[in-house]
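Thread: "does anyone have the structure for this chain?"

Original post by V.I.:
We have the sequence but no experimental structure in hand. Need at least a predicted one for the grant figures.
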Amino acid sequence: MKVTFVDPIKSGDYCNSTPNDFSKIPITPGVYIYGLYLEIEKQGKKFVPLYVGTAKNLSKRIEEHYVEEKTLGNSHKEMFDFSKKTFLNNEIINRYLSMDIYDSYKGRKNKVSLIYSIKHLIYFQDTTFYNLRYKTTSFPLFNAGHIAAIQLLSNQCISSIDIARNMLEVLETKKQFDSNYYFAYATLKDDVNNFEDDEFFKDFKTFKKSFSQKAIDRIELATKKALKKDLNIITTAKASGKIYHMHIDLSDVKDNLINLGTHSFGVPYKSPLVITP
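Reply from O.Q.:
Generated one for you, tokens below.
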């Protein structure tokens, strides 16, 4: 089975590097990758994936992430520091390593108290995170999102350079989403007829031109695993389940995708760029 991702810029849907007209995204189920379009030293502007997800309505869900993550958005999603204007390859790799540690801790018993020590993690929705990081017992996080957490930090009677830095990193990272939000998506519909006899297709096909949510979840997992295994790209939000053998085709995305050394630092990926979990 092959799943083909579409780059919104290269496909001609947008005339600049900020794809924020979400009406051009198909209103269909599918899998998406979102992240930031950042300046990477010796590579130029590159797509840095941060998250792989599924959606019943790709257009709606991809826009929701943009609204939640940008400056005025009060998302409750974990946030890593991408506040710099220009990054070295190793700086992106270090953040990916932190994201990998975060995924291994999140949701596991007795691990929440360790999350506060993860480098580059600048927001996590848990009072313990802030109380341990800033050695206080008075941080009333409760259900505070990004903006509310910043406001609470500013109201704390704690004189700390670290708190001021954390506030700035959150605000500047959210500003990155204002102008550098980026994504790719796969609708799956163009690939359905190519694997009538595929094991995956037999297990989860619901009718001629459609997939069950369970099938899409498995493609999400395969995409995450393939990005990590073949390209050293790590995304948050753990996906679980049986891994099917499939080909994740990123050929349309390759020219804008960050290269972290699997195919030599900064050297454009060769075509086709097809990865497997």
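V.I.: this helps a lot. The longest helix spans residues 161-180.
O.Q.: and The chain has one domain: 2-104+181-275.
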